[in-house]
Amino acid sequence: MIRLIERAKDFKNRTAVVSNGASYSYGQLLEASRNVAANLLDGKDDLNEARITFLVPPSFEYTAVQWGIWAAGGIAVPLCVLHPLPSIQYVLEDTQAEIVIAHKDYIGFLKPLEATIGISVTALESVLKENTTSLPDIDSRRRAMILYTSGTTNRPKGVVTTHDNIEAQITTLVDAWEWHKEDYILNILPLHHVHGIINVMGCALWSGACCEFLPKFDAEKVWEIFKSGRLTLFMAVPTIYYKLISFWEKAAAEEQKKMSKAASKLRLMVSGSAALPVPVLQKWKEITGQTLLERYGMTEIGMGLSNSYRGERRPGHVGLPLPGVQMRLVDSNDETVGENEPGEFQIKGPSVFKEYWKKQEATRKAFTEDGWFITGDIGMLNDGLYKILGRDSVDIIKSGGYKISALEIEDVLRKHELVDDCAVVGLPDDEWGEVVSACIVSKKDTVDFKQISEWLKTQLPAYKIPRNYIVRNGLPRNVLGKVTKNEVKEMWPPLTPPKGENAR
């Protein structure tokens, strides 16, 4: 039994989703998801964990497709509407999916894949049409979803969660953040990550609350929704708060007062997916009276730690383990470290993922012999609360809520005719946390960075495209020949150079 779907029957007449100017009840969501399930089954008794990929913008239809896949016994694999075709193709091939459900805006975009990899592109309308059939009984231990990491170890890995994992990820947040059926939240987050799927949509629908979708972020529109008074919660990445502050600062004084008053009335505002710069937290509190709640999580575990809903929210800290989450900080020998000593976060509990899709060795390496998930993140216990110190790798760039693999970008960059070698690093930035920056080695006298960026857009998602470039004759390396990334970072002046600096 999928309890998330079963619980919706208790809220049939309540509004579940607001999407594209229309409101939909839980009853309508259940009916639409049953239609999706029946059409996917197409005479079969059970999808038996077939991977069903879908490219649908954040919406009521997205939710119905996700629930329909689950109700039919399939594994839901949401795709990112902003990714270029090679990124989409990688996921389709890796999951060995046979179909991709596509919104009409993306059918033409996906059609070439029918010939190249033999996948069937299925129109969204065809799975939503009215249909009835008996649905299978789903064991909660079944695989339910595959979400792809941002590629922090070169190529992205498919993170497999069961229905039990998803329920645990949702319920720990419902308990910790005191969700209830009168809540109303705006979802402006991508729906191929746990932040948007679990923290926002999943928690709202578990609670009988309302989730409104805004498929594309617009600061003015978000402030208008704040002023409407209908929101009780809001969750975003630090970059979004930075943009909302910038919009507020440009507004007239009287309008600023209205915006500040409206935001002050929400019961909870959360920031996550990247470290929240303390100046952003302080400025947001100054203009809204809200102390943003920071938490820590990742695709493999959902949320692991959180600052307190009712107690202290200390800047630069991520609080304590959530209900049901076991956590320890260990040294390189997996020995527990003391207070104010840095160590690696390791996590246990029902929210931890089942496996990396078709990657047994990677799954094995992700856990200690006694079953702790190795996060790779370093932190410490500081006066009773935990703080994140960083990733135990200079090849991970955290930008705008994404964890980005520098190695993946380097592999693509080296394919360009102007690039002989390169090193990609993250440079500090108040708005994005870090910005992707590339040091290029080239035999050419001049390097057209605009040309490289335009080419990269056909190969990588936009958030992985470097914003800063420099050219050098060579890269600093250690005695083993490995590029020393910290030295690469020092090649840039203290102030980020203008885009397209071409100095040697």
Q: Which geometry do the CA atoms define? A: globular
DSSP strand content: 25-35%
**Backbone structural class:** alpha/beta
- Estimated helix fraction: 25-40%
First-to-last CA distance:
62 Å
Radius of gyration: 23 Å
Spatial arrangement of strands, main beta sheet:
2-1-10-9-11-12-13-14-15
On the 0-100 scale, what is the average pLDDT?
Answer: 92
CATH C-level category of one domain: Alpha Beta
Largest sheet: 9 strands, mixed
CATH superfamily of one domain: ANL, N-terminal domain
Count the helices. How many?
Answer: 17
Short characterization:
The protein has 504 residues and is α/β, with parallel strands linked by helices.
How would you explain this protein's 3D organization?
This is Acyl-CoA synthetase. This protein is an alpha/beta fold and 504 residues long. Among the domains are: 3-203, ANL, N-terminal domain (Rossmann fold), CATH 3.40.50.12780; 396-489, ANL, C-terminal domain (GMP Synthetase, Chain A, domain 3). It has a 9-stranded mixed beta sheet with strand order 2-1-10-9-11-12-13-14-15. It has a 4-stranded parallel beta sheet with strand order 4-3-5-6. β19 and β20 (385-391) form a beta hairpin. The longest helix has 16 residues, at 26-41. The model is unreliable at 495-504 (pLDDT under 50).
